[in-house]
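Posting this for the archive.
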Amino acid sequence: MKHVWDLGDDDDSLLPVLGICLGFQSLVVHCGGVVRKLSTGLHGMIRPIDHADNDVLPLSEGNIFAGVPEFKATLYHSLFADIGQQQGRLEAGSEQEWARGNAKWNSPAHLPDVVPLAWVTERRDEGFDERILMGVKHRRKPFWGLQYHPESVCTESTGHQVIKNWFAQAARWNRARGRIAKSEVDGSLEGLTYNLPKKSEKASRPFLPTLQPRSPPGSLAAPLSHPNPQPSLWDQDLGCEYFSTSLELPNHVEVPDIVESLQAGRRDFVVLDSASAKTSRTGLDVKGRYSIIALDVDKALQLEYRTGSRQVTLRRRRTDSGTSAAGDRESGEVNDQYDVELIGFDEEHTIWSVLASFWSRREHPIPANDDTTHPFLGGFMGFTTYELGLEGIQVKPLNHDRHSRPDLSFAWVTRSAVVDHMEGTICLQTLSSDEHSAAAWLEQAAQTLQASPVWTDGLGADFSKKTAGGDLDRRLLHAANTVQAQPTPPLTPDEKRSARTHIQIPDADEYEAKVRQCQEYIAAGDSYELCLTDQTLITRPKSPGIVGLVPGTQQHHGPYHNGSKRPQQAIDSTACASLSSSSSSPSSWSLYRTLRTRNPAPFGSYIRLSGATLVSSSPERFLQVSGSTGTCSMRPMKGTVKKSSTVCTLAQAEEILHVPKEEAENLMIVDLVRHDLHSVCGVGKEAVAVPQLLKVEEYASVFQMISVVEGQLPPSPPLPVAGYHHRRHHPQGDSQQQLPPRPNGLDVLAATLPPGSMTGAPKKRSCEILQHLEGPSAERSLYSGVVGYMDVRGHSDWSVTIRSLFRWDDEEDVVVVLGEHENDEQHQQHQHSALEVWHIGAGGAVTALSTPHGERDEMFTKLKGPLGVFEHQV
């Protein structure tokens, strides 16, 4: 950055420059000033800007604050530029003397090129005022600097005139030196000038897959041979139409009941569960209207990707008849054999361009007369890990080569059910190329539901209302949809509870030490905010499978089993005497039922996919995109208070959360996700807006501060934005002659991962620091990733994976039980037991105003919800 200020003294070499924050500090240092630490950082703080008016320094002399009314601006810094103002401190009472002689607007004698333009005075508890320089100009060169952030959502709009004034000054300086002005620019920045030839962007060629069939390690499937009587996996599920039928949903039937009725015997699951839908009528969160259940995921085409691999794995289970479970997939039950294809891509492409190409071949355009209100018709459903997001911001995950687990797993779902909790209906739907097969499947699924024991007390369904081509039947209204259902009971109340579960929670003292380390980084100016997390490990005997659904699947390792085990532990035999017992742990499905009852959330989920099991009660929507309008919505969540006897109302929570520390946490992430959205939506307030800022919402066990950031995708791709390397490619045609289509939900997802509410700001540097603090072996994995969908119309909805627990099939903990003579090898008794390992992540945003004790309490508060599902097992 320092080389910007060394362009030269002659007019041919100079360019007008505006430095902001670090750029401002760099300019002052170049002029001879120094940078020091503030007494306390001001990240996310909003302060009035004391600036030079036109009488002090006319606009003609380069004062970009001339004619600007008073305004407040957002500060994001822990360092300040010192030009001799008593090392940033003025004794109380000296303010009038400073102002009377206009000393604050004069260039210091030892820094003649620095012209002060703006200040902030911060009163400190120690009894002094800290004067902080906010704006400067270079006396001889067209250089300006601002310490505050004019782009922040909380910088008042009256202050935007400063940027317009700077642009006018830059244009004036260029015109005076014969620079050529380009008039065909946006009206808000008229007079943009060019002196250098514009570099043309090289159009990227479209992505065309190279199929590399093979069998993964551990798979029983033989490599595909060519010619293959079936189309390649890349070419399956094309040319499908949409078919559906709607049923009234009995009021007592809940999402888990539907899954158990329709998916008995299945191995893979994707359930997006708005478990808080009915509790929302009693004053809680109101976003949970729909739940989405992927059906027959076992038979679905699945796409998997591991960071750094430069290849996508397409896999599909085979049926008992030995064929791929493609088409309408009625040729038999699936087994553990797979057809597999590897799709390699070069450095000109990314995982997102492969997914975009796959999706665009199956896109189902929305007709002009479409009245389908359901959020999902079929398409991608699945998860991404936190480490996938790191790859997108060029942060290499540490020790990621210890295993071969995917960082992205999407199923292409062609059969699904959507529950409308507001209308009291369930829509069964399928994407199919065969109308008769689709109608038969819809009728069979509806009859299966109606015949299930749980449906007995419900209303009958009219199976004649099957429609095609996107025309959903939404005329059935549930007569009792305002009656709150009973909590979901455990699936098997008499299921044995294990007393052999071992829970390893984070060490409180170590966590507080990490909080202090975060604050050291923040004070040094390396970050504004660091979202520190830690993981709790739960080891327990392997569960028997998904109770009531399919026994044994929890021990199915799938294609990723590599025999890896966690380091052995020697444990006292009296503590582990029960390991020899034949009883087993409650299933992951039972854990899911328990969690959704204890902590109903709008974005809950249960996923069994690619060797991963996820049980989530997430309250946080990450990203929602409309395929028809191109509108994007993000809901960053920062600021948490636990419900208690002293905090039980919204008003009490607002009093606690509407304080500078909590509001600053949320504001910093709001500005971060605004930046992410601008990278795909373009510039200007019409592209990205904040319709809701710092609102406190009520959830089942906590109150949360939420903001809403909305973006509008442009009709054509925006100009390239520095630092945004994602490319999207149309699968067909000459890329040199056609522009890519409008960015869609995949583009937005690629630009916004990892979730800003789980990283801190600025994102890349914060993630690098967090890797160091959380440990080289502490992968977040599914925690801090996202879960959701993008359907064939381009509608997408993703939640942040928090308040959750997860495990991987290939992760085992081997316990060695020692006998009485543990020091005598001849008398040593060994007993081995393989345990499954569950992970629960929790943490919070650390800022300059945080306290180690407060951050520790917040982490344990967030941990309490998901950890509670194990409370009867220890």
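The first strand starts at residue 17 and ends at 20. The chain has 14 helices and 42 strands.
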